[in-house]
Amino acid sequence: MSKKHIIKSAGIIGFATVISRVLGFVRDIIIAKFFGTAKYAEAFVVAFRIPNMLRDLIGEGAANAAFVPVLSEYAVKKKEEFWELA
Protein backbone atom coordinates (compact mmCIF):
# COMPACT_ATOMS: atom_id res chain seq x y z
CA MET A 1 0.00 0.00 0.00
CA SER A 2 1.51 3.29 -1.07
CA LYS A 3 1.95 6.35 1.10
CA LYS A 4 -0.32 8.30 -1.27
CA HIS A 5 -3.10 5.74 -0.82
CA ILE A 6 -2.77 5.87 2.98
CA ILE A 7 -2.92 9.67 2.97
CA LYS A 8 -5.98 9.61 0.71
CA SER A 9 -7.72 7.07 2.97
CA ALA A 10 -6.91 9.09 6.09
CA GLY A 11 -8.27 12.21 4.39
CA ILE A 12 -11.52 10.45 3.54
CA ILE A 13 -11.93 9.23 7.12
CA GLY A 14 -11.12 12.70 8.48
CA PHE A 15 -13.61 14.34 6.12
CA ALA A 16 -16.31 11.82 7.06
CA THR A 17 -15.65 12.51 10.74
CA VAL A 18 -16.01 16.27 10.23
CA ILE A 19 -19.28 15.74 8.32
CA SER A 20 -20.53 13.48 11.10
CA ARG A 21 -19.76 16.11 13.74
CA VAL A 22 -21.44 18.86 11.72
CA LEU A 23 -24.55 16.73 11.21
CA GLY A 24 -24.63 15.95 14.94
CA PHE A 25 -24.47 19.66 15.68
CA VAL A 26 -27.31 20.32 13.22
CA ARG A 27 -29.30 17.52 14.88
CA ASP A 28 -28.84 19.17 18.28
CA ILE A 29 -29.94 22.54 16.88
CA ILE A 30 -33.09 20.97 15.44
CA ILE A 31 -33.85 19.22 18.74
CA ALA A 32 -33.41 22.51 20.60
CA LYS A 33 -35.68 24.29 18.13
CA PHE A 34 -38.51 21.77 18.36
CA PHE A 35 -38.28 20.79 22.02
CA GLY A 36 -36.57 23.79 23.60
CA THR A 37 -35.00 23.18 26.98
CA ALA A 38 -38.07 21.65 28.55
CA LYS A 39 -38.38 18.21 30.06
CA TYR A 40 -39.47 16.89 26.64
CA ALA A 41 -36.10 17.75 25.16
CA GLU A 42 -34.33 15.99 28.01
CA ALA A 43 -36.52 12.91 27.57
CA PHE A 44 -35.76 12.86 23.85
CA VAL A 45 -32.02 13.19 24.41
CA VAL A 46 -32.00 10.39 27.00
CA ALA A 47 -34.07 8.14 24.73
CA PHE A 48 -31.73 8.90 21.84
CA ARG A 49 -28.52 8.40 23.83
CA ILE A 50 -29.30 5.00 25.34
CA PRO A 51 -29.31 3.06 22.03
CA ASN A 52 -26.22 4.96 20.89
CA MET A 53 -24.40 4.12 24.10
CA LEU A 54 -25.25 0.44 23.71
CA ARG A 55 -24.05 0.52 20.10
CA ASP A 56 -20.79 2.12 21.20
CA LEU A 57 -20.21 -0.37 24.02
CA ILE A 58 -21.34 -3.55 22.31
CA GLY A 59 -20.74 -2.90 18.64
CA GLU A 60 -17.82 -0.58 18.19
CA GLY A 61 -16.09 -1.36 21.46
CA ALA A 62 -16.24 -5.11 20.90
CA ALA A 63 -15.10 -4.77 17.30
CA ASN A 64 -12.10 -2.68 18.33
CA ALA A 65 -11.22 -4.99 21.20
CA ALA A 66 -11.28 -8.00 18.88
CA PHE A 67 -9.83 -6.51 15.71
CA VAL A 68 -6.92 -4.36 16.91
CA PRO A 69 -4.91 -7.14 18.62
CA VAL A 70 -5.31 -9.44 15.61
CA LEU A 71 -4.34 -6.70 13.20
CA SER A 72 -1.33 -5.77 15.34
CA GLU A 73 -0.14 -9.37 15.40
CA TYR A 74 -0.42 -9.60 11.63
CA ALA A 75 1.48 -6.32 11.25
CA VAL A 76 4.41 -7.71 13.22
CA LYS A 77 4.50 -11.35 12.14
CA LYS A 78 2.84 -11.59 8.72
CA LYS A 79 3.36 -8.33 6.86
CA GLU A 80 2.08 -9.58 3.49
CA GLU A 81 -1.16 -10.94 4.98
CA PHE A 82 -1.50 -7.79 7.09
CA TRP A 83 -2.16 -5.65 4.01
CA GLU A 84 -4.69 -8.16 2.69
CA LEU A 85 -6.52 -8.13 6.02
CA ALA A 86 -6.38 -4.35 6.36
Give a description of the structure.
This protein has 86 residues and is an all-alpha fold. It folds into 2 domains: 1-35; 37-86. The chain is 92% helix and 0% strand. The chain has 3 helices and no strands. The protein has helices spanning 3-35, 39-77, 79-85. Helix 1 (3-35) packs antiparallel against helix 2 (39-77). The protein is elongated and about 55 Å long. The mean pLDDT is 81.
Structural class: mainly alpha
Number-wise, the strands total 0
Count of alpha and pi helical runs:
3
Task: Name the overall outline.
Answer: elongated
Average pLDDT score: 81
Radius of gyration computed on alpha carbons: 19 Å
β-strand percent reads under 5%
| Largest sheet composition | none
How do the strands and helices of this protein lay out in sequence?
Blueprint: H1 3-35, H2 39-77, H3 79-85
Brief characterization of the structure:
The chain is an all-alpha fold. The protein has helices at residues 3-35, 39-77, 79-85.
Descriptors for this entry?
mainly alpha; 3 helices
